[in-house]
Specification:
Layout: H1 2-8, E1 12-17, H2 22-31, H3 55-64, E2 69-76, E3 80-81, H4 88-91, E4 94-99
Antiparallel strand pairs: 1-4, 2-3, 2-4
């Protein structure tokens, strides 16, 4: 899908919920179950999302597919921007990338 989007436009904005977010990690650790959130209120077997992944997974995919990340932003903790220095793969609830 990313490659097809990049064929249509030179630059593409990609955003996704980060499944390595600390609240999700803690929920899984403490409950032993996949979480349901306001954004994703589905059972794990009934989710409309085909692939659940993390910021680190996305960056590795871009490197493997030779997709250049132009910029990245992260949000969490009430949708405030989270600086990259605060380990976004753990502390960011959402990720936003500009790729080409």
């Amino acid at each position: 899908t990313l490659k097809k989007c990049l064929e249509i436009g030179n630059k593409v904005i990609v955003s996704f919920p980060n499944f390595a977010y600390i609240k999700i990690r803690l929920y899984i650790m403490l409950s032993g179950r996949m979480p349901k959130t306001k954004l994703l209120p589905y059972e794990w077997y009934n989710t409309p999302n085909i692939h659940l992944f993390t910021i680190k997974d996305f960056k590795e995919l871009c490197a493997k597919e030779k997709i250049k990340i132009i910029s990245e932003r992260f949000s969490g903790f009430g949708k405030k921007e989270v600086p990259v220095s605060l380990i976004p793969n753990i502390f960011a609830e959402f990720a936003y990338f500009l790729i080409e």
